[in-house]
Input
Amino acid sequence: GQQVQQSPASLVLQEGENAELQCNFSTSLNSMQWFYQRPGGSLVSLFYNPSGTKHSGRLTSTTVIKERRSSLHISSSQTTDSGTYLCALERGNTNKVVFGTGTRLQVLP
Amino acid sequence: EAAVTQSPRNKVAVTGGKVTLSCNQTNNHNNMYWYRQDTGHGLRLIHYSYGAGSTEKGDIPDGYKASRPSQENFSLILELATPSQTSVYFCASGEPATGQLYFGEGSKLTVL
Output
């Protein structure tokens, strides 16, 4: 079954609203990473966060290993935040990195 | 800044033809990966490598081969391309100690 599940699958916000994206995993974790992808574009790393909380501008990532989840919080969303957000984890200590199916975010002006 | 470059960026192939997608990294990372991305499936791991001379099967290896002749280069080979292999392919390199990945720009493959 799917080892990395992201929710919601899609999200529409008005500019200025906040968003909380979730990534839940059913396998042991060695690393957790969040990526942003523009439509048709490459992937840009937002956070490498295997545990704890990290901040970058309007973005916050929190990974709680015991609860097998990681979240990405976007505050005061902007239209330029629109795109797909993907989480990826390395299973155990295997060097095998797998992805969730992503959350497609649309921020309206 | 980590650098991963893929070629070709766009490719149109015929069914039954051979396709080779190339990836070069200048990060001196041991690990390299090939993924494909399709609507509704996200990124799925095809093959990966721990270093020169090694290749490992990912989650969807059928119909694909991989080659890692050097630390810098990792190729994905479709010996007999099929329309179901039409997709966008991404290569990545990674630091084994952390699992952090750096991606190329992607290669769009269309098999007619």
Observations:
- Chain A touches chain B through 22 residues (CB under 8 Å).
- Chain A has a mean pLDDT of 90.
